[in-house]
Design goal:
The chain is α/β, with parallel strands linked by helices and 289 residues long. It is built from nine helices and 15 strands. 21% of the residues lie in helices and 24% in strands. The longest helix has 12 residues. The protein is globular, with a radius of gyration of 18 Å.
């Protein structure tokens, strides 16, 4: 069946927000960071952008990988596109969430707690035969580590794997070494990530999120890093060395070239289209500003 799976990886400074439109027209967000390096706008809202520019007035699913400010700041604009379903690491208690955040971030934390305490959750398991039927033929798998110390909320991030048109995209939140190791003990997770083509680097490309062991199961064609203007550490060189390369088109220059790593810091908003045609052929397009 023909269709297109569309991703928009937003420039939200040192944060993360990805919009996904499924072949059947359903709208998802994974995380809701806020801000823009390109416009030096601290309050740039991905939700407002999708509402104003693309008439996205509701979400079929909102995945909040974990409750840190740089992943939930745009909850203040959720009234523009309220979700039908919210997936979040609900094994974390209210005290875990509060204790894992700064006092200055409590406005967003309160919004997060009000949301997850008042909505349903559906994480599609790997063996759910209805998952592709609900997402226009996209196979969605979700996993969440639960065993690490709850003092570090990064290690409780939901990992989402999306497969369509012969391409697999891995979006892992801010998981660090300890939770990666926990996930790799799960055979279903190992099988899910095997053969990943597009990787969003964990924890904004920091060294703490880099886990060499995952590359025993795949070598991404392209790694995308959602990062800000500065970071205390960076594993971008390591991701570059693990990636095999993909042709990327630039809107501003009109040129296409093989790239190994893209960053929202330098490449701004990044779009990915996975297209399945009626004749069985497949097209994969990555575009940067």
């Amino acid at each position: 069946m023909a269709g297109e799976l569309f991703f928009l990886f937003f420039d939200v400074q040192h944060g993360h927000a990805t919009y996904i439109k499924f072949p059947n027209g359903k709208h998802w967000f994974i995380d809701l960071g806020q801000g823009s390096i390109q416009d030096t706008n601290e309050t740039f809202s991905p939700l407002h952008h999708m509402w104003y520019s693309y008439n996205v007035t509701y979400l079929d699913n909102l995945v909040l990988t974990h409750p840190h400010h740089d992943h939930i700041a745009d909850l203040e604009n959720l009234h523009l596109a309220f979700p039908n379903v919210v997936a979040a690491p609900r094994h974390l208690s209210e005290s875990d969430v509060r204790g894992g955040n700064r006092e200055s971030d409590m406005v967003a934390v309160e919004q997060y707690l009000a949301l997850v305490q008042g909505t349903s959750q559906r994480i599609i398991p790997a063996n759910d035969p209805t998952s592709s039927g609900n997402t226009g033929g996209v196979w969605v798998q979700m996993f969440c580590p639960t065993q690490c110390a709850r003092s570090n909320l990064n290690n409780h991030s939901i990992v989402t794997v999306l497969s369509y048109a012969g391409t697999k995209v891995l979006i892992p939140g801010d998981n660090e070494a300890a939770s990666w190791r926990e996930l790799l003990e799960n055979p279903a997770f190992v099988e899910a990530i095997r053969g990943t083509n597009i990787l969003l680097a964990a924890h904004h490309g920091r060294e703490a999120g880099y886990c060499a062991d995952i590359f025993d199961y795949f070598k991404p064609c392209l790694t995308i890093v959602s990062d800000g203007a500065g970071s205390d550490t960076s594993a971008v060189t390591s991701y570059y060395q693990q990636s095999t390369g993909w042709v990327v088109h630039s809107r501003s220059s009109g040129r296409s070239e093989t790239r190994y790593c893209l960053t929202t810091r330098t490449d701004k908003g990044i779009t990915l289209k996975l297209i399945q045609k009626d004749d069985g052929s497949r097209v994969r397009e990555v575009t940067i500003a």
